[in-house]
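Check out one such.
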Amino acid sequence: MSAALDEFCGSVFWNASYLARPDADLPVCFQQTVLVWVPLGFFWILAPWQLLPMCRSRTKKSSVTKLYIIKQVLATLLMLTAVAELALAFVEDTEQNPLPAVLYTNPSLYIATWLLVLLIHDARRFCLCRDSGVLFCFWALSLLCGILPFQSLLRRALQEPISDVPRFVLFFIFYGLQLLLFLVSGCSDIAPETKEITKKNPEVTASFLSSVTFEWYTSTVFKGYRKPLEVEDVWELKDKDKTRAIYTTFEKNMKTAVKKAQAELEKRKRKRRRQEGDHGNNMSKAQSQDVLVLEEKQPKKKKKGNKEDASLRKDFPRGWLVKTLCKTFWQNLLMSVAFKLVHDGLVFVSPQLLKLLIAFVSDEESFVWQGYLYAILLFLTALIQSLCLQQYFSLCFQLGTNVRASLIAAIYKKALTMSSTTRKESTVGETVNLMSADAQRFMDMTNFVHQLWSSPLQIILSIVFLWGELGPSVLAGIAVMVLLIPINGFLVAKAKTIQVKNMKNKDERMKMMSEILNGIKILKLFAWEPSFEKRVNEIRARELKNLVNFSYLQSISIFVFTCAPFLVSLASFAVYVLVDENNILDAQKAFTAISLFNVLRFPMAMLPLVLSSLVQTNVSTARLERYLGGEDMDTSAIHHNPIAGSAVRFSEATFAWEQDGNAAIRDITLDIVPGSLVAVVGAVGSGKSSLVSAMLGEMENVKGHINIQGSLAYVPQQAWIQNATLKDNILFGSELDEARYQQVIKACALLPDLALLPAGDQTEIGEKGINLSGGQKQRVSLARAVYSNADIYILDDPLSAVDAHVGKYLFEHVLGPKGLLQNKTRILVTHSISFLPQVDNIVVLVAGAVSEHGSYSTLLANRGAFAQFLNTYGSQEENASEKNTPAVASAEDQEQGDEDEPCVEEGPEDVVTMTLKREASIRQRDFSRSLSKNSTNSLEKAQEEPPKKLKGQQLIEKETVETGKVKFSMYLRYLRAVGLWYSFWVAMGYVAQYVAFVGTNLWLSAWTDDAQHYLNQTYPVEQRDLRIGVFGALGVSQALFLLFATILSAQGAVRASRVMHQQLLSNILRVPMSFFDTTPTGRIVNRFAKDIFTIDETIPMSFRSWLSCFMAIISTLLMICLATPFFALVIIPLSIFYYFVLRFYVSTSRQLRRLDSVTRSPIYSHFGETVSGLSVIRAYGHQERFLQQNENTMDINQKTVYSWIISNRWLAIRLEFVGSLVVFFSALLAVISKGTLEGGIVGLSVSSALNVSQWKLFLIPGWGCSREL
């Protein structure tokens, strides 16, 4: 092979002696072949795929830009240089002096390559992102490989006259043009057509370099630094990341997987039935009777027992969810695997380079160029490792958010389509839990799912490399690690037990707080605040006692984790030097081993956590599979066939609430004529509401069917009101027709209410219609139905919640023969007998069956069930009307007295208007009185801000979000709550720990230098024992100081938790009632739930980790400076860069976390609202609109979460770059200072630098404190 290449080049291909000298170089043949063909090979393998857009794309080419022209001109010039080089070869080639083949081959290859580059530039015009990642990598690789010929030619030119001037000039022109193309490729090429898209999301058109370094996100970071970010400032999601796109793919895969799982379920059921059948056949008659008796008794026990256990026994389609997720997101999974593999491989390169660097410093005969090469390689390894890791994390976190989005969308859609039987199995709270807790658990799991294969791989590779360094002695260190796993497991189990106890206390406290907040009026009326405060404090005391125990366990766990690295290295090194007298610990072995043990620590710590997370995710998987695999609503019994002269027809319809339950309505055969008014009457429990539910498809069909011709509108018995304006509640997604709208408002007696409502029909209605009376809610619900202009109206006793006079008005103007709906089909369920003479047909229900039906006079003459019904309800209504009349009269008198205007007594409208006005004005008076007591600042601010909202248009005050950085006084307030002495001694504990840490490392460095001092001598036993003893003592003291600090911080944190909760509870119980009118209960509950959890657990942990990482970085930089004092000069610019990056990041990240929290609440609120109004949404057929609304709400939250993920990666890549520079400069200064340094101190310096980038990243969670505070 070598001989053939020698002939091909006309010179020697490889000669090792070229490198064995101070001015090392590579043979010319090697430079002309390997260094040229490697980049070209990479390009030709990947380039053809870049031409695919040209073949596939149906879109039009985007415009030519200046950047595109520059690229094409440079590529053409490159091609001309290759043509010139080929022409030169032809000119110089003579029979007497033939040129080597390489001078023809390389220019020809380059001509073909530059032609392909021109084509790729053109093909990228079909794509949104016009920059090619393959081309960028090719330019980078080509320039890197070209550095060696570049320096060779330059050195030769300086030493002697240039022999081949044309090729010399052509090479430098060629290298310069490539460099220009590389720089141009780093810029984003944005076509005029895509500028609008770029404004919404610059990532879409970002260049490869910008995407890899997240440079496109810098403008958001600057914006976030200048002013607090708002939702509008956050970039839009890419189309493929929107909920609709993700869920469409997920749903398609889910349907296929669920079908297979249901087929498996049927097989299991059949198998079980066969087994039970065989079992039954083999039993005697007496035995089978006993079994029947037992089976009868069993359900009774189940009812008394835990209902959840009974539902768990019920089988459901299994094992489809994970498969569906893998099938949906396989591309993301594959790409992240690729990045993780490259990263994991490079993790083991750094310790080997460190070993070579220590050998270089220790060896006086080694060449300087080797040291510089190792320093550059360390920097490049760290840089590529960092780029791969950040891409991997970015993909994993995107996967997490996309999985959460698809699961929430699936749960929401399921809620809209599920059958009543499935609905009964889970409450609204449980379903919201599926959305929040279970979907979140999947999101957390997907972030680290690759650790399941990566951790074992890293552990195996670490052990292999460690064995190479220390031989069998490494088993001692691994044994210590393995022994620590069960200790860790025991601590985790104990902590889990305490957490479970504490969750019960938390639940009990939150239940008590919810009761207090729901009954706050009564509480304040009877002045019960002190007694309830005492009860809450008792529960809180139990909670804090458990919290202290948990914190102590955590301290022991941290103590064990801190002991682990030094115990492992102590065991390995001690065994290594004790086993054999000839084994002397030198710097190469010690620091390479320590670097490998540091690599090993992460996967060994992560693997148990990921496995426990996997167990928890399995529980969530089962819960989600049961819910999403449940039966959908079966509307096959509801037909929509056109039948002349029939609007609704029941044909022997029998329906039940459960599949195998008793029929709620049976054998109903009924025909309702279009345009008629049909009243459905009957005693309580006779099946009137069941009849309505059957028509809406909410019940299980036993036999028969119902035929409905036309669209439906439904007014439920309990009015369902959305948290929106009054106008939006009436329009309900329909287009506004002002004339019809006004007509509907007048007919539904809402004009008097609008006159008194603060912002008219623009008034915001609170949660569940909190600021409307029962009658007002019902009239809004009726107005919604009337405005929808449907063909058939199903009215489930809409007049029961309104006053008798108002009811009469509504019947006359809306429902009756002369009302707005006179030409529509109306099915009215009612108890009010006064309207029955005016209806066309009356249906009398008894025990779920139609007893009789006909006109009022016919049924009265029959003297059947209807006559009995009239006797029962007639007497009740007379009594009610007698009671109502004086009240209305007094209202009339008051209204006349107040208004000083003559009233027309005849018109019933006036009586109605007065009643309504009085009702609304009393309610408004009460409400405004409570508001005026405590007019809050935020409301005033909201009114000042443009666009000015009318007073009352916004009832619920917007939650105030703190902006900007956290004031120092806030930190001081927390430290005071902890106790200033506690804070001081905790800090001292950490300082002492890191003094011991520096001492341990310096001692190890001195120990490894003994190998040089006692070269070719017997190592003294006393010296060996002293080294091991002091190393162990320093390590133990380091862990003991940390234990002291963490125990003190645990006590201080619990003290702060007690103080803060007491202040919060005391304040909430003593604020005036107006505060509760304008603040949603959920917001107050959130303060006692999430925020108290943050104070209890998150802030202490964040403070501890921040303090620990800060001290680690200071001590590491101190050690590097001790080794190479000039490093202090490098620290200054790096620290300035670090500080500014962090300062920009923190303000942006903090605000994005706040936005995530603010935009997440509407998802759950909208879901809760949807579930409570499910029958109404289904009746109107508005499922698609609500799905769309959910997707929009989800997308707003998704974009804030995505933006936060990118902000983290933006920061991480910059900080890791600082870390890579620290490694590079520590190695470079070690090379420069060669001869004055020992191998041990160099090993200490560079191995510390390799850790610094890790510590820098862990500093960031500490900044989380500022967010949480």
In short: The beta strands are 638-639, 648-656, 663-672, 677-681, 700-708, 712-715, 792-796, 825-829, 841-846, 849-854.
